[in-house]
Write a structure and sequence with these properties.
Number of helices: 23
Radius of gyration: 25 Å
Distance between the termini: 22 Å
Number of strands: 6
Oligomer: single chain
Structural class: mainly alpha
Order of helices and strands: HEHHHHHHHHHHEEEHHHHHHHHHHHEEH
């Protein structure tokens, strides 16, 4: 056993050194670790439609961008020819129709009577082979749409139900969509005037409707080509302009910004309008990714703040302390610079007024790793930022202890997964967010005696499932929900073999032990762990799936922090899986669709975490391994 431990420790030291180098190399000059999130071809299609219908396609280099995007969209189709919602999902008919409209624009095949010539001009940057490839994608997708039933019961496209017909009509230069959409928009307008309607949803559904409604109303207004906009359209356009962020965007994702650019152009704004130019620049630098082969992809969101917090925490824990203006210092300055006026932090940095508890918790945890080793002036800045962040998180705590992401919920959370309706309308407190907030509060000096902490611990006790797991809202399934809860308990000093005296802590330690037992029972024969998105909908699939590097790295870190000894066969098997699943250059490729934007409906992959979570696991493994072998780095 000692020889095997020495062999794994030797590999882990080398692997950690390589992983630190890869993480440092991925840092941007501004100190952040940027990543765009791509789940399907819809954002790319909307960007193409936006370029054409706004006239921004005339800007330098945009024909090249469009050609790259329509080529990249072809990689996001299923074998049946339809465009997929996310990796492993069925094809979506509404999604495919929007993508088809965008491709027709690029190929010069869109009908746009009375519109400018560039609206339907064929893209000259597609060579003959590329054009043939794109046309084949379009042909197969159109066949899929013709063959698909009018309604599909296996897909819930809440983001497409209203806007996909609107986007298709707009791409074709039509003046309006059907009267049914006008009635829906009228109902949404009424909902905006009812501030007492589901107050818990005002930062989820209400804000989405509030941000998209003016643009949608302009696009369905039936404005004729060349006609002067009505007073109502001008008023709606002014409202859109008044809410544009200094960054050039609207809201944290790409969708609202794309919609607003199209609406302003429909209302008469020329392509050189400062608002359109600023929005185009924001979209291009935040969500557009160019590939080496000339293709491109376009994301629905940027998780730059969250990813930078993840990376900073991992970077410092792995032995790269702050000081000297290095990577950790640059990341810290970046994070301090994007804190919102409300005191919290946003998932992405695109809109200054956004903040939510989950990203704030990640940032404060990274501050906990860096503050102790920082210079005094930096440490003071970190403490001030952390105090404001703690206040921001505590304002979101439900009276029964749980935390959700956005504005404090009036409804409590529960065991197991939430329905799509509850997620969209309520943003209920969940165990995974609560566990991460507990960790952050503990890193900021709050112990288990604090009333807020005790309520949060009570919430974790109430939401633990009968099998010992916790459901995770933002990472599909139950394995990582249990893993995050173990980390929260460990941060408060609880250990799997401990015996705390307080009644609440004794109950929490028992819950911790049950959570660990759940994880141990679901370790795969190859030493790893894995779970699929199907676990959100089918309890029989809880904890079941082929092993993945991200699941395994996260869970082995949590077990080690919870007190499982490094000499345990469980740990040895898990580290063995990470060693065997590494690439020849020592990195990892886990592209499984694992993360939830809307559980049971919409998921995405997060390749950036391949740079972070295995490095975390190596660090957690090496610390006790060094002590056991009598070595210290």
């Amino acid at each position: 056993m000692r020889r095997e431990t020495e062999t794994l420790a030797s590999w882990a030291r080398d692997a950690r050194s390589l992983a630190l180098g890869r993480l440092a190399a991925a840092q941007a000059p501004d100190g952040s670790w940027p990543q765009i999130l791509v789940d399907n071809a819809m954002p790319a299609a909307l960007f193409v439609i936006m370029l054409r219908t706004s006239g921004l396609i005339r800007r330098e280099g945009q024909m090249d961008v469009e050609a790259g995007l329509v080529r990249g969209m072809g990689r996001l189709v299923n074998p049946d020819g339809g465009f997929r919602k996310y990796g492993g999902s069925p094809s979506g008919t509404r999604l495919s129709r929007v993508c088809n409209a965008a491709i027709r624009l690029a190929l010069g095949g869109a009908r746009a009577p009375g519109r400018p010539a560039e609206w339907a001009r064929k893209n000259p940057r597609l060579d003959a082979a590329q054009e043939a490839e794109v046309r084949e994608v379009l042909r197969r997708s159109e066949e899929f749409c013709r063959a698909a039933p009018a309604r599909r019961t296996d897909e819930l496209e809440t983001d497409l139900l209203l806007f996909s017909p609107l986007m298709v009509a707009h791409a074709c230069g039509l003046d309006a969509v059907g009267p049914g959409h006008r009635r829906v928009l009228a109902l949404l307008a009424c909902a905006l005037r009812l501030p007492g309607l589901l107050p818990a949803s005002r930062t989820v559904l209400h804000r989405l409707v509030e941000a998209s409604w003016p643009a949608a109303m302009i696009l369905v207004a039936g404005l004729k080509p060349g006609a002067a906009p009505s007073r109502r359209v001008r008023r709606l356009a002014a409202l859109i302009r008044s809410t544009q962020d200094p960054s050039g965007g609207w809201e944290i994702g790409s969708f609202i910004t794309l919609l607003n650019v199209m609406a302003l152009a429909r209302a008469g704004a020329p392509a050189d309008d400062p608002a359109l130019v600023a929005a185009h620049g924001f979209l291009a630098r935040t969500f557009l990714r160019r590939e080496d082969d000339g293709s491109a992809s376009f994301g629905f969101a940027s998780s730059v703040v969250l990813d930078t917090a993840y990376a900073l925490d991992t970077f410092v824990r792995a032995g790269a302390p702050p000081g000297g203006g290095g990577a950790a210092d640059r990341a810290l300055r970046y994070l301090l610079g994007v804190q919102t006026s409300e005191g919290g932090f946003s998932f992405g940095s695109s809109v200054a007024r956004d903040s939510e508890a989950d990203t704030t918790a990640h940032v404060l945890r990274s501050f906990g790793a860096i503050a102790a080793s920082s210079e005094e002036e930096t440490a003071r800045a970190v403490r001030r930022s952390a105090e404001a962040g703690v206040a921001s998180m505590l304002r979101r705590q439900h009276r029964r202890g749980g935390f959700n992401c956005f504005r404090r919920s009036v409804f409590d959370g529960h065991r197991g997964s939430s329905s799509v309706v509850k997620q969209v309308f309520l943003d209920l407190p969940t165990a995974d967010v609560t566990a991460r907030v507990i960790e952050a509060l503990a890193d900021c000096g709050m112990d288990a005696r604090h009333p807020a902490m005790r309520r949060a611990l009570g919430f974790l006790l109430r939401t633990q499932c009968a099998n010992g797991a916790w459901w995770s809202r933002w990472w599909a399934g139950y394995l990582v929900g249990a893993s995050f809860s173990l980390r929260a308990y460990a941060k408060l000093g609880l250990r799997l073999d401990g015996a705390p005296g307080d009644r609440l802590l004794r109950a929490s330690q028992r819950a911790m032990r049950r959570g660990a037992d759940f994880l141990l029972a679901h370790q795969n024969p190859d030493g790893g762990w894995g779970e699929t998105t199907a676990a959100d909908s089918d309890d029989a699939l809880t904890g079941i799936g082929a092993s993945t590097p991200l699941h395994t790295a996260h869970i082995v870190s949590s077990l080690l922090r919870a007190g499982l000894p490094v000499s345990s066969p469980v740990i040895a098997a898990a580290m063995g899986f990470l060693r065997e699943s590494a690439r020849a250059d020592g990195g990892w490729d886990d592209a499984q669709t694992t993360f939830s934007s809307l559980a049971r409906s919409q998921y995405y992959a997060c390749p950036f975490l391949n740079l972070v979570l295995p490095l975390d696991a190596l660090t957690d493994y090496l610390d006790p391994a060094q002590r056991r072998l009598g070595r210290h780095e």
